[in-house]
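ok, trying the design again with the full structure, not the truncated one.
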């Protein structure tokens, strides 16, 4: 990245960091189960609510108890269940039309981050009916109070129940853009492990790796506070201690509750300290190829951590210690290596790949430019990268034909900066963290 662009990025980030103590962040009020929602809605004089979810969540019956509760409480509940994995502006407009037709005055986002983000965006369009969603992309472009917004996460990953952001995909261009504003923080969040019990192992892993990415990127960035560092460290600890348990036994309520707590803490941390190039690259990939966000985060995370290099070793060493991966007495470089290798080992245990077969080499320049536009100057990353450097990152997860990849490996004389899960001798690491 050229010097002028670096100066602009760091100046922008410094100003934003200086403003953190006075910005109007708030936390949602936490509820332990959905049974309290009828009382909450009556308290706010709500007689009709829009439930935003997806077909899979509703089809397996997860929303039925809430729908029945509201019906028995005399509260009308319109349901929009067409949210897709990467919610689009079309989803938002369809849900908004239903909200208006049913004379609703509150929103419940019920599902993964997609449904909650869709509900947030519907709220933004209700608050600003004359402005298209694309013109709210970026920071603080909503600045209007939303209707009562309740988040009920069915996955422990996105942390959208705690964040000021919603990520929406343009249905025509497939461009994925974030909308960030304090008004998008939900007023209430229901953290009920019972709702997450039916989540399959693969989705349990992908969503938890999403939360891990939130925590790690928030922690290693340059705009942290004492509170965000504490939230991020605790989220990392909880994920390493409980993900294997939840993956192996979905009915382990304690593990499920711990992962929900971790996702919430990670969401709270990155709302204030932001994320980094893992997210910038993942958003461009999932927008282009309609890939699950947590899945792409998991693949990219160790690559980006390697790319940042020695400047994050001390921070990764502390995370490694708190996660039970390394001892405090270990050298920072060794402990950081152990942490990155542990992430790679988790990916392997959960069947997540090192490369993305969907990625096409010809798309990389466009993807890199998109990631550059999202990440710079907003994300206070440890090391700044421009679109040229980001191309190298995308190339590191490109799945080459087998013969081509074997020839490249034979020619390689030194360890790649983007190597995942191998030491300098090419051996697999012998340290695999165990769930506690």
């Amino acid at each position: 990245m050229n010097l002028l662009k670096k100066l602009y990025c760091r100046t922008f980030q410094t100003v934003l960091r200086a403003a953190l103590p006075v910005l109007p962040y708030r936390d949602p009020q936490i509820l332990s189960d959905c049974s309290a929602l009828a009382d909450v809605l009556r308290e706010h004089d709500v007689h009709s609510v829009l439930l935003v979810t997806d077909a899979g969540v509703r089809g397996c019956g997860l929303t039925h108890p809430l729908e029945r509760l509201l019906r028995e409480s005399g509260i009308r509940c319109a349901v929009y269940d067409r949210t897709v994995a990467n919610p689009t502006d079309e989803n938002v407009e369809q849900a908004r039309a239903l909200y208006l037709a049913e004379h609703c005055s509150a929103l419940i986002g019920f599902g993964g981050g997609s449904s909650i983000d869709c509900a947030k965006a519907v709220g933004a369009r209700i608050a600003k009916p004359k402005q298209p969603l694309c013109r709210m992309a970026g920071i603080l472009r909503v600045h209007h109070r939303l209707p009562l917004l309740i988040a009920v996460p069915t996955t422990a990953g996105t942390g959208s129940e705690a964040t000021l952001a919603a990520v929406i995909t343009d249905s025509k261009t497939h461009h994925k853009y974030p909308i960030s504003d304090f008004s998008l923080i939900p007023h209430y969040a229901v953290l009920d492990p019972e709702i997450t019990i039916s989540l399959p192992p693969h989705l349990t892993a992908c969503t938890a790796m999403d939360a891990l990415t939130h925590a790690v990127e928030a922690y290693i960035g340059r705009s942290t506070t004492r509170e965000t560092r504490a939230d991020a460290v605790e989220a990392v600890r909880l994920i390493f201690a409980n993900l294997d348990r939840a993956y192996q036994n979905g009915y382990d309520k304690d593990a499920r509750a711990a992962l929900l707590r971790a996702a919430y803490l990670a969401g709270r941390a990155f709302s204030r300290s932001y994320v980094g190039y893992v997210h910038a690259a993942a958003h461009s990939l999932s927008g282009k190829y309609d890939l699950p966000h947590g899945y792409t985060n998991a693949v990219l995370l160790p690559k980006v951590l390697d790319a940042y290099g020695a400047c994050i070793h001390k921070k990764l060493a502390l995370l490694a210690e708190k996660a039970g991966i390394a001892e405090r007495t270990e050298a920072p470089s060794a402990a950081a290596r152990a942490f990155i290798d542990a992430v790679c080992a988790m990916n392997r245990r959960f069947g997540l790949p090192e490369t993305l077969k969907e990625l096409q080499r010809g798309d990389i320049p466009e993807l890199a430019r998109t990631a550059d536009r999202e990440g710079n100057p907003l994300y206070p990353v440890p090391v700044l990268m421009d679109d040229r450097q980001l191309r190298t990152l995308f190339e590191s997860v490109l799945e080459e034909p087998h013969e081509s990849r074997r020839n490249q490996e034979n020619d390689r004389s030194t360890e790649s900066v983007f190597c995942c899960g191998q030491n300098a001798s090419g051996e697999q690491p012998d340290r695999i963290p165990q769930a506690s």
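Keeping the full-length input from now on. The chain has a mean pLDDT of 91.
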